[in-house]
Design brief:
Helix content: 55-70%
Strand content: under 5%
Number of strands: 0
Shape: elongated
Oligomer: single chain
Structural class: mainly alpha
Amino acid sequence: MHDTKTEHDVDEALLAQQREIDKINAMTHEELARKWRYAPIGDDYFNEDLPYYEVFRARLYDHFGGFTPAISKAIGWGR
């Protein structure tokens, strides 16, 4: 049996990616900063080969102004 992706599989994968992008676009400044600081190594949101990284970076830095001292203090260093 061949391991080929059908058009349906591709559509499902794109829908799953869009759902994750929608989650990122709904995150608050604090949620983004927490994810940035505490995400485990290898988290998909920070994999530059996936579309999430650029969306995440743009929302955190372009939309909210980045990882400010105030947001850093608000989230602290403990989970």
